[in-house]
């Protein structure tokens, strides 16, 4: 009889299986060490196939996203707003980004906070933000999304801004893109509670549009202070907006991926936004290559190949 798994372990293992399967690495989960677990995996993966498809929207592969001419003029801000119901688009991750106003200088890196004081230090930043009205995004906000995860995380992810689900719950990456991010984290051998997740802006841009210059410039000093408190060893920028605001570099994502940047004492790796990967699952292999750079920097062992 198959050995039973506790629900948390089962969820982590299934998340890995889904992520690797989406990458085409089917052999990885066909050959676990324990034959009893192998049988259980196979049965559970089959059984959960349809619910996985509902959760991630990536099985079977979705057709290539159409181009979005309204967004092609400019990738960062100052573009035509999308209709209120539009999902995160990320259609043009590799398009050139035209020059705009210079980015504001990032604040000085603040002094190190001892691990035991980091939760309280983050709370102080949250208190200072308060019921924020510093930029126009507050007008459409339900809940401000400060960030979530371990205050002592070695790995931190930065996305663009809350979507509808995040705005409703006050937590980052809890919608469909968040489920894919959870799978990516699990594939790295980590639990979501072990990492920290935040965004360039803490309030939902209307219609999920890219944050405007003023909005990013107002909000990122708080993000930088969160980074200074947490002191992650590795930061992963999810998508062009995060990469642009962290690096202050308006470069196409293609030029920023595949290498390690230095940012506020962390090693910064740039990869695709999970919402973009949901639209174009063929890029998951590329994203996995980026995550493996992060794993290498963190000293995490890559999973055994078949
Ligand atoms: N997309 C983001 O960039 N951040 C979130 O929190 C959710 C979706």
Give a structural overview.
- By secondary structure, the chain is of the alpha/beta class.
- The protein folds into 2 domains: 2-76, no CATH class; 115-298, Uracil-DNA Glycosylase, subunit E.
- 42% of the residues lie in helices and 8% in strands.
- It has helices spanning 7-22, 26-30, 35-56, 69-72, 118-129, 164-169, 176-187, 213-230, 240-247, 253-256, 274-279, 284-298, and strands at residues 148-149, 155-159, 196-199, 234-238, 261-263, 266-271.
- The chain has a 6-stranded mixed beta sheet, with helices on both faces.
- β5 and β6 form a beta hairpin.
- α1 packs across α7 (176-187).
- Bound molecules: uracil (URA).
- The site of uracil (URA) has 13 residues, from α7.
List keywords for this structure.
6 strands, 306 residues, 42% helix, alpha/beta, 6-stranded mixed sheet, Uracil-DNA Glycosylase, subunit E
């Amino acid at each position: 009889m198959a050995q039973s798994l506790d629900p948390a372990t089962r969820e982590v293992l299934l998340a890995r299986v889904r992520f690797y399967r989406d990458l085409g690495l089917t052999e990885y989960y066909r050959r676990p060490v324990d034959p009893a677990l192998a049988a259980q995996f196979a049965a559970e993966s089959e059984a959960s196939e349809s619910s996985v498809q509902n959760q991630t929207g990536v099985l079977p592969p979705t057709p290539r996203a159409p181009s979005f001419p309204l967004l092609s003029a400019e990738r960062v801000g100052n573009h035509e707003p999308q209709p209120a119901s539009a999902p995160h688009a990320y259609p043009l991750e590799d398009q050139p980004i035209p020059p705009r106003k210079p980015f504001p200088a990032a604040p000085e890196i603040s002094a190190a906070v001892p691990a035991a004081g980091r939760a309280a230090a983050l709370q102080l930043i949250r208190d200072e933000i308060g019921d924020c009205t510093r930029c126009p995004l507050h007008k459409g906000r339900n809940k401000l999304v400060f960030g979530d995860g371990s205050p002592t995380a070695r790995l931190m992810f930065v996305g663009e801004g809350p979507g509808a689900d995040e705005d409703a719950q006050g937590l980052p990456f809890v919608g469909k893109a968040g489920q894919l991010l959870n799978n990516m984290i699990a594939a790295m051998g980590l639990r979501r509670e072990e990492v920290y997740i935040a965004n360039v802006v803490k309030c939902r841009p209307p219609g999920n549009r890219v944050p405007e210059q003023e909005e990013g410039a107002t909000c990122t000093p708080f993000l930088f202070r969160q980074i200074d408190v947490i002191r992650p060893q590795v930061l992963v920028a999810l998508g062009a907006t995060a990469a642009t605001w962290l690096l202050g570099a308006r470069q196409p994502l293609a030029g920023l991926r595949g290498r390690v940047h230095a940012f506020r004492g962390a090693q910064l790796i740039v990869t695709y936004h999970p919402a973009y990967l949901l639209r174009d699952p063929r890029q998951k292999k590329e994203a996995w290559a980026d995550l493996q750079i992060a794993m290498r920097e963190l000293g995490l062992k890559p999973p055994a190949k078949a």
